[in-house]
Amino acid sequence: MHLLFTPNHVQLITACYPPSASLLTSGPDYRPNAQELSRLTYYAANKPGKINKLSNELEKRIKLECRKAHSNNPRSRAYFLISLSIFKALTTECRRDISLLTRSLLASVDTVLSTFPSDIEVSAKAANLAWTTFTDGRLVGVDQAVTRDYLSVLERFSKMSRATSSSGDSEFTNRTRLVGLAALNGVVTSEALYSSSTFKDQVSTLVPAILSNLQEIELSVLKDESTNIRQKPLSPYLDEFRTRPAIERHAPSIHLHIDGERGPTKTDVSNACLRALSHLFDHSDGGQIAFVMQAAMAGLDQIRGWGQVGHCCWFAHKATEWTQYQFRDAVPNRLIERLQREQDAPTTTTLHIALADMITTVFTSPIPLVMSTSDVISNLITLVLRRAAIDPTDSLLLALTECIGALGTHVYYADQIHDLASELITRLVSAEATGLLGRERDSGGRSRGQALRALIAGLVGLMCTPARRLENRSSGETPRLEHEIVSSGQKLAESVHSSNGDKPARLSTERTDGEARLTKRTRISPETWQDTLNLICDVDFSVRSDYANALLFYLESEISTRGEYTDGDRVRRNRPLAASQLQQVGDMMAALHGDESTRFLHAIHVYLYILATSPTFHNSAPSPSPPRSTGHRDSADITVIPATPDASHEAIGVAEDRSSPARSQHGRLSLSLPTRTRKLSLVRRIISRLSSRITPSSPPSATASDYRNIASILIRIHEYLPVRGLLAGVPFLLSLSSFADVDESTDRVSVGRILAIREVISRVWLALGRIWDCRELVEMAETALSSMPVSSYLPPEEEARDLGRLADPDVPVQISPVNDADGVWSGVDPEVALNALASSKNALEVTAMDSETLRKRLSTQWTAESAFKDSMEPQSSYDPLRRDGISAQLRLAPALMHIENLSLQSLARSTRGVGVTDLRDALDGRGSMSNPALVNKPPSLSTLDHASTHVDTPFNRFRPARPKPEKPKAAGPSEVRDMLSKLQIGKSGNGSNLLRASFPGLQRQEARKTTSVVPPYKS
User: Fold this and answer.
1) What share of the chain is helix, strand, coil (3-state, %, to 5)?
2) Among residues 420, 318, 397, which one has the least CA distance to residue 362?
3) Segment 317-371, tens digit of pLDDT
C-alpha cells in the first residue's frame, strides 16, 4: 500500500521487496521481485537524473536495517540483503552513469561490513556488487567521502582474506579467505586501482594480504599452481578486461559453499592469490611496479616472512615474469634500494640474505630484463665495500658476490661484460689503493682484504656466468648444429680480428672443456685487466691467492689469443694452411714487436718477479688524510708534460695518452691520474730495491704457496699463449735462474727458498718442452724433477672451487728449511735447456727464425726495469708544447705567409680558443687568404666599427673608426731563402732532405735538367 504524495522513485524501490510475511523465506538468494526490479532499472536507465535519489534512498534503508539486524532481527537482515541485490541490479543496468551511484553504494557497503565483519553471507553479497567491474575510478582520490569509504572497504576485505577460524575449522577459514580474495580480485582487475591517485595506498593494503596467504602454502604447490594459471586461465575475458569498453564488461559471480560439496582447500586459496597477484603485475606500469614491490617488502616485514628464503625468491622470480617486459627492471632496482637502506645494520639478518638471494634469482632467471647494468653493479660494489668495512666476516659478502656474477647471465649488448668488468676493476683498484671508508683503524687490514677478495670473486663470476649459460644452451643442441655454430664463430672472430688488429673482437669464442663456443660479447681486454696485476704481490696472502686463481681463469677464457693455438695434443705446431701468409706474418710481427697481449705478459712477469724476489710487500692503501682544499683539487686535474720527459714523468704521459679520446672504445677505463702515478711510482721503487741474490738479511717474503701459484701462472701462459710466452717468458726464466744461485752466505731457510724457485723453473721448462714438442727438453726436465731429494718443495694444488664464489681465505704454506746436503740439487741447466729449445723444429717454423737468431732472441738479458718499460703502451710522438710530429710544411707556412692562418692553428692543435673576434674577422674577409673567392675583393660590411642605423645617439657620432687592415703581402724569394736557412730545410745532411721529401715532383724535374743524356751507342 502506497501513501499519498509518496515520490515515484520511493514507490519503485518499495515495490521491489517481497511481502513482509515472505521475507524470511526469500533466502538464501534474497532476490527482489523480478518484474518490479525491471521497472526500477528501466526508470533509472532512462532518467539518469533520478539515479542520485534512488541511491540515497537505498543507502538510507540499508543503514536503518543494519542497525535493526545488529540486534538479531532476522527480517531486517533479509531486508538489507535484498537492498544490496537492488544496488547490484542498478549498477549493472546503469553502468554508463555509475559515478552517480558510487558514493551511496560504497557508503552502504562500508556500513554493512562494519556491522557484520564475520558474516560470510553478508560479505559475499557486499563483494558481489560489480562496482569494480564498471567504474572508471575517477572519483577515487578526488572525492574525499568516496576515497575514505573505498579504502575502508578495501581494508575490511583484506583482513577477511587472511582471517582464521577461532574453532580451527580449515574449511571455514578457506571459505572466508576466498570471499575476501574474490573482492581483491575485483580490485586488481578494476580501473579504480590503476587510474586513481591512491594506487600506493591500495596496494599497501591488498599486497600484504595476498603474500600472507602465499607464505602459508608449500613451495611445491605454488610452483605447480603458478604454472597452471598461465596454461589454464580462469577466463580469457579477464585478461583483456581493460581493453573492453564498460558497456561490454561482465561481472564475475561469487558463490558460497553448497551443502553436500567438499569445502575449499589450500590449493583453491593459492590459486585465487596467484591470479590476483599475476593480474596486478601484468597491468601495472613501471612506477606502479615500484609501489607494488615496496608494499610486498612491507608485507614481508609485517608477517616476518624474510626467513622463508625459498618463498621470497619464488616471489621475486614470478614478479619479474608477470611484469611487462619494459618495466621488469623495477623489480631488482627496488630490491637493491631496500638492501642499500639496510646496509648499515651492525649484523646480517635474514632480511639481508633474502634480499640478496632474490636479486640473484632475478638475474639468473631465463627471463630477459632491460636495465642499466652499470648502475646496478655500482650499487652492488658499494654494498660490498660497506659490509666489508662493518664486518669482514659478514656472510652477506658471499651473497653479494653471487649477485655481481649473476649480472653476466644475460648479455644484452656486445660490450656489456667488458663495461661491467671495467667498472668493477676501477673500484677494485681504488679500494686497493685507498682502503675502505670508515675503516681507517682497521687492524691487520682484514676489512680491506675481504673487500678485495669479494670483488675478485665477483669479477670471476662475471666472466664465467656467460660461459655457463652457453654450456646450458648448447647441451640441448644437436652435434651438427653445434659444429656449425663453432665453425662459423671461429671464422667470424678471425675476420674481425684481422680487421680490427689489437682491438677486442665483437664476437669471441668461449673456450670451455677444450672446445670453442661462440658468444656474442666482447672479451675483457688485457689493458683493462692490467690495472689489477699489482694484486699478485699484495700484502695479504688470501688476496694474492684468490687473485692468482682469477688470473688463471682470465688466461684460460678471456685474453685475446690472436695467432695462438695448439693442437689436440697440446702441442704448438705451424699451420701453413690455417691462415693466409699475410695474416701469419701480421700475427708474428705483433708477437715480436709487442701488442696488448705481449705488454700484458711483460707486466705479469714483472709482478711475478717481485713476488718471487722482493723481501717486502708494500700495502698501497695510504693512511687517512684530511680533505684537500679546492685549489689543490683543481690543480691535481691539470697535467703538463715537459718538453724533455724523463723517467719520473713517463707514467704521467702514459696515463694521459690512455685517457685520450683517440683511444679505442675498448680501452681501459682510465683511473685517476694521482692513483695510477702513485702506483707506478711504487712499483718502480720496489724494482729499484730488488736484490740480485737471496741473502739471509733480506730474504724474499713469498711463501711456498706463492711459488706454487707462480708456477701455475707461468705454465698457463705457455699453454694458452705459446708464442708470446716463448718470447717473453724464456728470458724471464733465465733471469730467475740466475737469482736462485747458492753462495757461502746462504742459510738453511734460503736454501729451501732457492730449491722451491728451481722447482718452479724446472716445471716451466717441462711445460715448454711439451708445448713445443721438444723431446730433449722434456727428458731433461723430467730427469731433474725426478732427482729431487724430496717429492716436491711446493705444496700440492688446491681443490677445485666454485668459480665466482667467495670461499674461506687460504692459509699459506711456509718455506721449510732444508739440510745443506739437499742444496746440491741444481734443477735444469738453463743454458742446455735454452739450446734445446732454440733447436726445436716447431719453434723455428712458427717464429720463422733460424736457430742462432732464435737463441739470441731468447737469451736477451731480462731485467724488471726493461720488462716494466715494455709493459707500458708506447707514448705518442706528438708533443702539444713542442709541436712534434708536425710536418715541415706546417712549420714553414707561418714564415712564408704573414697572415693569421686559423686553419694552421687547428692543425697544430693550438691552445688559443676561437672567440667572437675571430668570427667577425672571418665575416669581414680577414685571415681568409686561403679562400680564392675572397682574394683581391673588398671586405664585407661589418657592424664592428659602425653604430646602429636604428638608434642615433651622441656616442655614435664621435666613435673613432677602426683602421682597415692592409692587404697581406706574399714573401719574396730572399725572405724564403732566409727562412729556409733558419729552419735548416734544404740542406743535405745524413742523406735527408725535408724539402725534397715534401715536393717529389720538383725533384724529378730538377733531375731531368741536370742529368746529361748518354746514348747506348757510339756516335
Assistant:
1) 60, 0, 40
2) 318
3) 999 999 999 999 999 999 999 999 999 999 999 999 999 999 999 999 999 888 8
Strand partners, 517: 510
The pTM (predicted TM-score) of the whole model is 0.74
Q: Which of 147, 127, 40, 21 is nearest to 78 (CA)?
A: 21
- Residue 896: name the closest of 835, 968, 842 by CA: 968
Residues contacting 759, CB < 8 A, separation 6+: 707, 711, 785, 788, 792, 793, 794, 827
Confirm if 492 and 507 have CB atoms less than 8 A apart.
yes
d(CA 306, CA 313) in angstroms, rounded, equals: 10
pLDDT-derived band of residue 401, with 50, 70 and 90 as boundaries? very high
Q: Which three cell numbers stand for residue 559?
A: 685474453
* E strand or H helix that includes residue 949: none
Cell of 34: 523480478
Three-state secondary-structure class, residue 626: coil
pLDDT digits (tens, 9 = 90+) for 100-138: 999 999 999 999 999 988 888 888 888 877 788 888 888
Q: Cα separation of 747 and 739, whole Å?
A: 15
Please state, in angstroms and rounded to a whole number, the distance separating the CA atoms of residues 319 and 209: 16
Closest CA relative to residue 862, chosen from 688, 606, 614? 606
Residue 274: its H or E element: helix 266-282
Higher pLDDT, 660 or 893: 893
Residue that is written with C-alpha cell 726495469 in the block? 865
For the chain, how many residues are written? 1019
Distance of alpha carbon 886 from alpha carbon 895, whole angstroms: 15
CA angle 713, 567, 606 (to 5 degrees): 20
> Cα–Cα distance between 680 and 686 in angstroms, integer?
10
- Are 745 and 695 a contacting pair, CB within 8 Å? yes
Distance (Å, whole) CA 792 – CA 759: 8
Per-residue pLDDT tens over the stretch 15-62: 999 888 888 788 778 889 999 999 999 999 999 999 999 999 999 999
Pick the closest to residue 79 from 117, 113, 30, 115 (CA basis).
30
**Residue 227's Cα: distance from chain center in Å?**
31
DSSP string, 126-177: HHTS-HHHH----SBTTBHHHHHHHHHHHHHHHHHHT---TT--HHHHHHHH
Other CB atoms within 10 A of residue 287 CB? 12
Name the amino acid, one letter, at 81: L
From residue 444, how far is each of 26, 363, 385, 441 by CA, in Å? 83, 35, 17, 9
Q: Torsions phi, psi of 985, nearest 5?
A: -110, 130
The whole-angstrom separation of Cα 670 and Cα 660 is 9
3-class DSSP state of 511: strand
Residue of 299, 286, 392, 396 lying closest to 332 (CA atoms): 286
- 8 A C-beta contact, residue 757 and residue 800: no
Q: How many alpha carbons fall within 13 Å on the CB side of residue 337?
A: 11
Q: Residue 585 corresponds to which cell in the numbers above?
A: 706474418
Backbone phi and psi for residue 951, each to the nearest 5 degrees, phi listed first: -125, 125
Asked if residue 771 lies in contact with residue 716, where contact means CB atoms within 8 angstroms, the answer is no
Query: Which phi-psi region, left, alpha or beta, contains residue 563 (left: φ > 0; alpha: ψ -120 to 50)?
Result: left
